Amino acid sequence: MNCIFCKIIEGKIPSTPVYQDEQGYAFADVNPQAPVHVLIAPREHIASIDEASTDQRALLGHLLWAASEIARKKGLENGYRIVVNTGSDGGQTVDHLHLHLLGGRLLAWPPG
Ligand code: 5GP
Ligand code: ZN
Description:
Layout: H1 4-9, E1 17-20, E2 24-28, E3 36-42, H2 57-73, E4 80-83, E5 99-103
Antiparallel strand pairs: 1-2, 2-3, 3-5, 4-5
Bound molecules: guanosine-5'-monophosphate (5GP) and zinc ion (ZN).
Residues 4, 13, 15, 27-31, 39, 85, 91-94 line the site of guanosine-5'-monophosphate.
């Protein structure tokens, strides 16, 4: 499968790792939109949250937990945002499910 995040997870494309375990891999976004911008992806290829099955709901919870754990380790005590862009209206550009963890500055709401 020609998936850039699968290649990153397999180590075929270099990345800056932030956190990893048996289910997920987190790495620095190559084009950061905030002082902290980490992507958290499942090791297993899932195209988007819309494609996740009922059997994968524990994995989704695990990724959310991992994002909050990274936020704690990064010292984001003033707050942060976890985003899952989905589909074309959602602004998803890489078709491998990932959570964005953004923090280190005041984030505007609503998003554009
Ligand atoms: P999306 O738009 O799908 O929600 O987010 C994709 C994210 O992946 C973007 O923030 C983009 O900067 C990041 N990204 C795209 N290609 C690469 C890459 O090769 N390496 C890393 N570290 N991040 C990437
Ligand atoms: Zn993939």
